[in-house]
Amino acid sequence: MTETRLSFKEMCARFDVTPRTLRYYEYIELLTPEKEGRNRFYGPREIARMTLILRGRRFGFALEELRQWLLIYEKQGTKAQLETFVGMANRQLGALTKQREELAVTIEDLRQLRDEAARLAESESKA
Fold first, then answer.
1. 85 phi and psi, to 5 degrees?
2. What are the beta bridge partners of residue 35?
3. For residue 59, which of 22, 21, 85 has the smallest C-alpha distance?
4. pTM for the full model?
5. Dihedral of the alpha carbons of 71, 74, 80, 83, in degrees to the nearest 10
6. Which of 7, 33, 70, 124 has the fewest CB atoms within 10 Å distance of its CB?
7. 8 A C-beta contact, residue 7 and residue 35
8. What distance in Å separates the CA atoms of residue 16 and residue 14, rounded to the nearest whole number?
9. Helix, strand, or coil here: 2?
10. Can you give the C-alpha Rg of the chain in angstroms?
């Protein structure tokens, strides 16, 4: 059975990231591809890590926080990593819920202001 390995270019295409992003993730030690001469190859471990990194970014986690979280698995195992994730997720859910509430207030304020402006514009055109 052949192990899945992606080249640098294939990795960028698969995850729809720029070469600069991929190089940066390597620089900050989120990813450690195999190197053969000047070529880099990403195996199943790096592909799985990239999936987790991008999912974490979508949820609003900082890159350093994700790096630390990935290190937990290597040093302490799955249980510690899962427990840490639950804490991270709870904190982020609280932050996202607060943002949603603030956004709802902002949307309502804008609607009221728009409606008031529309009424004023209409009364001006009748005058």
1. -60, -40
2. 40
3. 85
4. 0.80
5. 50
6. 124
7. no
8. 6
9. coil
10. 23
